[in-house]
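Page 47, continued from p. 46.
Same chain as before, 462 aa.
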Amino acid sequence: MGTRKQRERQEPLWYRTELAEAPGHPFYRRLNQVLEKAGFDPYCEQRCREHYHESLGRPSLAPGVYFRLMLIGFFEGIGSERGIAWRVADSLSLREFLGFGLDERTPDHVTISRTRRLLDEGVHQAVFGWVLRELARRGLLKGKTIGIDATTLEANAAMKSIERRDTAESYTEYLRRLAKAEGIDEKDEAALRRMDRKRTKRMSNQEWVNPHDPEAEITRMKDGCTHLAYKAEQAVDLQTGAIVAVTTHGGATGDTESIRETLPMAGAVLSKIAEWGVRSYVSEPERGRRQWAGQPEEQAAVYANRRRITGGRGLTLLRQRGERSERPFAHQFETGAGRRLHVRGRENVHKKLLVQAAACNLALLLRSMLGAGTPKGLRDRVAALLFALLRALLAYPTHRRLTGEVLDKPTLTLSRLRNSTPPNVRCRQRVGSVAVGTVVAHRPPHRSVRAELPHTAPTSDA
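Result:
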């Protein structure tokens, strides 16, 4: 198994100055310091040792390097492993982050994807847990109030490729069979499209499946389009914004079913939620009048939840849901380029989501240290600071104008000195035959200038 320690090598002595070097990105240098100080590489190597052979096979990708590659996808906004490989090969700062020299070949997308398939789901869950423990050690995990939310992700499968489960015929073949049964020319493509638009159809997951990704389900997305999709559900600490649990389901899975897996992973048991003393605040849509005949316990639970969500505490939690629970979705799937999946199968999708959530938690940790959670965020923060300093310098005048006059003459009179001396300035001037001592001018609250002159005796020029 390749380790990060084995990758360390002595620098060449005679031609080192001829190679191009980069100082490294400050964000990735800081991230490397955090990971190395916490023992990230030894933990990954120990956890992944059972998946590697000591001598057989081709030279492997070190576990720490593999997980760093997956983190780069989040921080750089790259969704595919092929794009990550291209970006790493092109960037000197990312080479330094991974520990590759300029004369070394970086991992290609085949090596990255094969390593992902060989490392099981438990390894990715362990790395996610390691990041979560690091957050708890630094005080960024409270665990008192947990919010659960879900979103849909477009699968790496097309609706045009679906086929029926019973007959294994494609959608076009199915339309032609229906047209033939109704007496329509099955070879007329325009007639087939007209018939398809007019007929009442329902794309059921019990009848249709994609052969390339059977676990993806037909789902109506938030924009109204229908795609094959997966559902990502996660539990978030509403006090800090840290992600504490991640689960993956088919796109058509309901919230009442998926929450039974997400909530126990967050540290509770849904079936006995009242016995454990956990108070729930579940958003309830408008359902109209409901019939509760023979369901007294369910009625009491729904009415109690309805009272809680309309109270002050419930309204506060709903506001925190938009700020804390939905913000990680924007970081992971919008700026992190995870809305469109590039892997297939629920297991591979879950591995991807676990690494995305771990990267989001690391961004939260770095945001508490640097004020920015991504390289672009750090660059924007530095640019904003420089522009603020530039505005401050441009706004500060060269001469303070207190009476409308500018001190442009070297010879001052006592009257002008009293009215034009800048505040908080100590000076010594000789006015005529009077030695003016230390003049301390300050600005009182009414923005007037006052000069205090000590009494001195006239002196002769001799």
